# Entry
Amino acid sequence: MSLIDLEKGTKVHGFRGYYLKNEAAQLEMALMMYALNKLIKKGFTPLITPTLVKEFSLYGTGFFPALKEEIFRIQDKTPDNQNDNMYLAGTSEVAILSYFSDDVLEKKNLPIKVCAFSPCFRSEVGSYGKDTKGLYRIHEFMKVEQIILCENDLKKSEMYFAEMLGIVEEILQELGLPYRIKNICTGDIGMGKYYMNDVETYMSSREDYGETHSCSNLTD
# Structure
Protein backbone atom coordinates (compact mmCIF):
# COMPACT_ATOMS: atom_id res chain seq x y z
CA MET A 1 0.00 0.00 0.00
CA SER A 2 1.30 3.45 -0.92
CA LEU A 3 2.32 5.57 2.10
CA ILE A 4 4.27 8.51 0.66
CA ASP A 5 4.05 10.13 -2.76
CA LEU A 6 7.08 12.33 -3.43
CA GLU A 7 6.51 12.54 -7.18
CA LYS A 8 3.07 14.12 -6.87
CA GLY A 9 4.31 16.25 -3.99
CA THR A 10 7.06 17.69 -6.17
CA LYS A 11 4.57 18.31 -8.98
CA VAL A 12 2.20 20.29 -6.74
CA HIS A 13 4.58 21.89 -4.23
CA GLY A 14 7.98 21.79 -5.91
CA PHE A 15 11.28 20.66 -4.39
CA ARG A 16 10.75 18.88 -1.02
CA GLY A 17 7.01 18.48 -1.59
CA TYR A 18 5.25 15.32 -0.44
CA TYR A 19 1.90 13.63 0.21
CA LEU A 20 1.26 11.30 3.13
CA LYS A 21 -1.23 8.57 2.28
CA ASN A 22 -3.22 5.82 3.95
CA GLU A 23 -1.61 4.57 7.19
CA ALA A 24 1.12 7.25 6.99
CA ALA A 25 -1.53 10.00 7.17
CA GLN A 26 -3.18 8.24 10.11
CA LEU A 27 0.16 7.74 11.85
CA GLU A 28 1.02 11.44 11.52
CA MET A 29 -2.19 12.52 13.23
CA ALA A 30 -1.90 9.79 15.86
CA LEU A 31 1.62 10.91 16.79
CA MET A 32 0.52 14.53 17.12
CA MET A 33 -2.38 13.61 19.42
CA TYR A 34 -0.21 11.19 21.41
CA ALA A 35 2.35 13.95 22.12
CA LEU A 36 -0.29 16.60 22.82
CA ASN A 37 -2.23 14.37 25.22
CA LYS A 38 0.96 13.40 27.07
CA LEU A 39 1.78 17.07 27.70
CA ILE A 40 -1.78 17.84 28.80
CA LYS A 41 -1.57 15.00 31.36
CA LYS A 42 1.66 16.57 32.66
CA GLY A 43 -0.06 19.89 33.36
CA PHE A 44 0.49 21.80 30.10
CA THR A 45 -2.28 24.02 28.71
CA PRO A 46 -2.92 23.14 25.03
CA LEU A 47 -3.08 25.73 22.27
CA ILE A 48 -3.56 25.73 18.52
CA THR A 49 -1.55 28.75 17.46
CA PRO A 50 -1.53 31.12 14.46
CA THR A 51 0.84 30.10 11.70
CA LEU A 52 0.97 33.60 10.20
CA VAL A 53 2.83 35.98 12.52
CA LYS A 54 3.93 39.59 12.43
CA GLU A 55 7.53 40.67 12.19
CA PHE A 56 7.70 41.81 15.84
CA SER A 57 7.05 38.23 16.99
CA LEU A 58 10.08 36.91 15.14
CA TYR A 59 12.35 39.67 16.47
CA GLY A 60 10.95 39.24 19.97
CA THR A 61 11.67 35.50 20.01
CA GLY A 62 15.19 35.80 18.60
CA PHE A 63 14.60 34.34 15.13
CA PHE A 64 15.21 37.70 13.43
CA PRO A 65 17.51 39.09 12.21
CA ALA A 66 19.86 36.06 12.03
CA LEU A 67 17.38 33.59 10.49
CA LYS A 68 15.47 36.02 8.27
CA GLU A 69 16.41 34.18 5.07
CA GLU A 70 14.96 30.92 6.40
CA ILE A 71 11.44 32.32 6.99
CA PHE A 72 8.77 32.52 4.28
CA ARG A 73 7.42 36.06 3.90
CA ILE A 74 3.81 36.25 2.70
CA GLN A 75 3.29 39.85 1.61
CA ASP A 76 4.57 43.36 2.11
CA LYS A 77 1.31 44.80 3.39
CA THR A 78 -1.57 43.50 5.46
CA PRO A 79 -5.16 44.77 5.27
CA ASP A 80 -5.25 45.94 8.90
CA ASN A 81 -1.77 47.45 9.18
CA GLN A 82 0.18 48.50 6.11
CA ASN A 83 3.48 48.60 8.00
CA ASP A 84 3.50 44.98 9.14
CA ASN A 85 5.04 42.17 7.10
CA MET A 86 3.52 38.73 7.62
CA TYR A 87 5.55 35.52 7.87
CA LEU A 88 4.91 31.78 8.05
CA ALA A 89 6.32 30.67 11.39
CA GLY A 90 8.83 27.82 11.47
CA THR A 91 7.65 26.80 14.94
CA SER A 92 4.71 27.52 17.25
CA GLU A 93 7.31 28.72 19.77
CA VAL A 94 7.02 32.13 18.08
CA ALA A 95 3.27 32.41 18.61
CA ILE A 96 3.32 30.92 22.13
CA LEU A 97 5.88 33.37 23.47
CA SER A 98 4.25 36.28 21.65
CA TYR A 99 0.97 35.38 23.37
CA PHE A 100 2.57 36.66 26.59
CA SER A 101 4.18 39.78 25.09
CA ASP A 102 3.38 43.00 27.02
CA ASP A 103 1.92 40.94 29.88
CA VAL A 104 3.16 41.23 33.46
CA LEU A 105 3.42 37.71 34.90
CA GLU A 106 2.86 37.42 38.64
CA LYS A 107 5.39 35.23 40.45
CA LYS A 108 2.57 33.43 42.27
CA ASN A 109 1.23 32.18 38.90
CA LEU A 110 4.54 30.67 37.78
CA PRO A 111 5.49 28.34 36.28
CA ILE A 112 3.23 28.63 33.24
CA LYS A 113 3.29 25.45 31.14
CA VAL A 114 1.92 25.63 27.60
CA CYS A 115 1.96 23.17 24.72
CA ALA A 116 0.83 23.77 21.16
CA PHE A 117 0.14 22.07 17.87
CA SER A 118 0.77 23.86 14.59
CA PRO A 119 1.96 23.44 11.02
CA CYS A 120 5.54 24.70 10.60
CA PHE A 121 7.21 26.19 7.52
CA ARG A 122 10.93 26.44 6.81
CA SER A 123 12.70 27.43 3.62
CA GLU A 124 15.83 25.37 4.44
CA VAL A 125 18.08 27.95 2.76
CA GLY A 126 21.57 26.56 2.18
CA SER A 127 20.52 22.92 2.51
CA TYR A 128 19.75 22.33 -1.20
CA GLY A 129 21.22 19.02 -2.27
CA LYS A 130 21.87 17.94 1.33
CA ASP A 131 19.72 15.39 3.17
CA THR A 132 17.20 15.51 0.35
CA LYS A 133 16.08 11.89 0.31
CA GLY A 134 12.82 11.03 2.03
CA LEU A 135 10.95 13.25 4.49
CA TYR A 136 13.89 15.14 5.96
CA ARG A 137 14.64 18.88 5.78
CA ILE A 138 11.20 19.45 4.27
CA HIS A 139 9.50 22.83 3.83
CA GLU A 140 6.39 22.09 5.88
CA PHE A 141 5.51 19.71 8.66
CA MET A 142 3.41 19.46 11.83
CA LYS A 143 4.87 19.73 15.31
CA VAL A 144 3.95 19.74 18.99
CA GLU A 145 5.83 22.32 21.09
CA GLN A 146 6.30 22.63 24.86
CA ILE A 147 7.09 25.90 26.68
CA ILE A 148 7.60 26.64 30.37
CA LEU A 149 7.77 30.20 31.71
CA CYS A 150 9.29 30.40 35.20
CA GLU A 151 10.80 33.00 37.52
CA ASN A 152 14.28 34.34 36.82
CA ASP A 153 16.13 31.68 38.77
CA LEU A 154 18.80 29.64 36.99
CA LYS A 155 18.41 26.54 39.16
CA LYS A 156 14.65 26.49 38.60
CA SER A 157 14.97 27.05 34.85
CA GLU A 158 17.50 24.20 34.65
CA MET A 159 15.07 22.01 36.57
CA TYR A 160 12.24 22.75 34.12
CA PHE A 161 14.62 22.25 31.19
CA ALA A 162 15.39 18.78 32.55
CA GLU A 163 11.65 18.15 32.89
CA MET A 164 11.01 18.98 29.22
CA LEU A 165 13.97 16.91 28.04
CA GLY A 166 12.65 14.07 30.18
CA ILE A 167 9.28 14.25 28.40
CA VAL A 168 11.06 13.97 25.05
CA GLU A 169 12.97 10.93 26.25
CA GLU A 170 9.80 9.37 27.66
CA ILE A 171 8.10 9.69 24.27
CA LEU A 172 11.00 8.12 22.39
CA GLN A 173 11.35 5.31 24.91
CA GLU A 174 7.62 4.53 24.77
CA LEU A 175 7.85 4.42 20.97
CA GLY A 176 10.88 2.12 21.18
CA LEU A 177 13.09 4.42 19.08
CA PRO A 178 16.90 4.58 19.55
CA TYR A 179 18.09 8.15 20.20
CA ARG A 180 21.01 10.22 21.41
CA ILE A 181 21.25 13.63 23.10
CA LYS A 182 23.70 16.24 21.81
CA ASN A 183 25.02 19.22 23.76
CA ILE A 184 25.05 22.12 21.31
CA CYS A 185 28.06 24.43 21.51
CA THR A 186 27.63 28.18 22.03
CA GLY A 187 28.49 29.00 18.43
CA ASP A 188 25.66 26.83 17.09
CA ILE A 189 22.78 27.82 19.40
CA GLY A 190 20.30 30.52 18.43
CA MET A 191 20.22 34.10 19.62
CA GLY A 192 19.24 34.54 23.26
CA LYS A 193 19.76 30.90 24.21
CA TYR A 194 21.72 29.96 27.33
CA TYR A 195 21.83 26.19 26.83
CA MET A 196 20.54 23.78 24.20
CA ASN A 197 20.23 20.06 23.55
CA ASP A 198 19.27 18.45 20.25
CA VAL A 199 17.79 14.96 20.34
CA GLU A 200 18.57 12.77 17.35
CA THR A 201 16.62 9.62 16.55
CA TYR A 202 17.98 6.72 14.54
CA MET A 203 16.44 6.54 11.06
CA SER A 204 16.96 3.16 9.41
CA SER A 205 16.33 4.53 5.91
CA ARG A 206 19.26 6.93 6.36
CA GLU A 207 21.36 4.46 8.38
CA ASP A 208 22.14 7.38 10.66
CA TYR A 209 20.72 9.61 13.36
CA GLY A 210 18.75 12.74 12.50
CA GLU A 211 17.42 15.62 14.62
CA THR A 212 13.82 15.07 15.72
CA HIS A 213 13.60 17.18 18.90
CA SER A 214 15.28 20.20 20.48
CA CYS A 215 15.21 21.70 23.98
CA SER A 216 16.48 25.17 24.87
CA ASN A 217 16.92 27.25 28.02
CA LEU A 218 16.70 30.99 27.36
CA THR A 219 16.90 32.29 30.97
CA ASP A 220 15.71 35.93 31.00
